[in-house]
Amino acid sequence: MNPHYKPLFEQITLPNGVVLSDRLGVAPMTTYSGNPDGTVSDAELEYYQRRAGIGSLYVSACIAISENGIAFPNQFIGFKEDVMPRLKQLATEMKSQGSKAILQMQHGGRQGQPDLIAAGETVAPSAIAESEDKPTPRALTGEEITAIIHDFGETTRHAIEAGFDGVEIHGANTYLIQQFVSATFNQRDDEWGGSFENRLKFPVAVLEEVKQVVAKHADDSFIIGYRLSPEENNQDSVGYTIEETKNLAERLIADGIHYIHVSLMDFKKAPRGMEDQGSIVEILSKQINGRVPFVVVGSITQPQHAVAALEEGADIVVMGRQALVDPEWTTKVKQGKEDDINETIPQEMVGKLDIPETMWNAIVSYGMVKVEA
Q1: C-alpha distances in angstroms, 212 versus 36, 153, 256?
Q2: Is position 5 annotated as part of the catalytic site?
Q3: Helix, strand or coil for residue 296?
Q4: DSSP annotation string for 191-258
Q5: What is the rounded distance in angstroms from the CA atom of residue 246 to the CA atom of residue 288?
Q6: Which of 58, 175, 240, 259 is catalytic?
Q7: Cα dihedral 228, 74, 209, 96 in deg (nearest 10)
Q8: Which of 202, 192, 138 has its CA nearest to residue 170?
Q9: Residue 18: CB partners within 8 Å, gap ≥ 6?
Q10: Residue 339 — pLDDT band, cuts 50, 70, 90?
Q11: Residue pLDDT, tens place only, 105-137
């Protein structure tokens, strides 16, 4: 192995004492490939098993924690007891090569799919549509907010019973938790909206509920992570800034989070209007200051990119699209064969990467991956 890449394979210890064997992992990627009843499919099990050797932190696609929060066709769900056998199989496959299996928990909020929800309507902090061509969600009642917080706890219990090593609270990518933090999409005038402190009450309450469930049903080795989008810049408004995200990070650390995961398309990206102050990764890394591991994703295809992300301030580097393209990425780096890493899918590998058919069709049609002719 190239000595320059050795930092990728150093151990790191989480605040709860869990030791990860390296600084690499798999980022969550929606598969669109669950069974019609919301259980994990055979194709998904094969997909996850194939990528189990990439790194020590393995985060699943997001699981819907409430019936009114389903955000994707064929998304797997966590709100029914009969999903447990398949969830157990998923945890087993993710852990098959020594990774820590993390179940990412999500509620779509206004990004939900009305045709996939029994009530036929989406819900959100406030009745504000993302755009004119999308349905306006119904504002949640206080009782419904409390019920959704409870659902995060119930899905955490299912994760524990299924054998997962942890959960990741999905507070990014414009889903429900981010909607509560956003000044644009949360215009409530009760305890859940208004000031930034009030807009943080929902993610804080979710974290507290998850912690209580873990304390009751698991031991101290169970991992709790949080994924965030570092800023929200809408077409005509700003939902929140990097400065407010620094305050969110402070609250998460104070409340006992085990890692913070920033969602980025490019780990080198700078905050909007602050290009002279360094990258988002650098800014948040300085704020976190080593108190919890900082997990970073975004445009990492080669090992030199992963090392650069560590140098920028990341503690753990996870890959999404690259994990799709080349499941043997880490093996190639360890063997000194990084020149053999595929950044696009060679034609001869089409159909040989254990990518579920529905997921394959989606990523190709969306231009998410390139296939070499």
Answers
A1: 32, 8, 12
A2: no
A3: strand
A4: TTSSSHHHHTHHHHHHHHHHHHHHHHHS-TT-EEEEEE-S-EE-SS-EEE-HHHHHHHHHHHHHTT-S
A5: 8
A6: 175
A7: -80
A8: 202
A9: 100, 165, 221, 223, 258
A10: very high
A11: 999 999 998 888 878 899 999 999 877 777 899
- Phi–psi pair at 176, nearest 5 degrees: -55, -45
Strands 166-171 and 100-106: parallel
Residues 6+ apart with CB under 8 A from 144: 123
- Return d(Cα 265, Cα 285) in angstroms, integer: 17
pLDDT (tens digit per residue) in 276-303:
889 999 999 999 999 999 999 999 999 9
Question: Residue 310 and residue 304: Cα distance in Å, rounded?
Answer: 10
Tokens 């990774």, located at residue: 99
The pTM score is 0.97
Helix then strand then coil, % of the chain, to nearest 5: 40, 15, 45
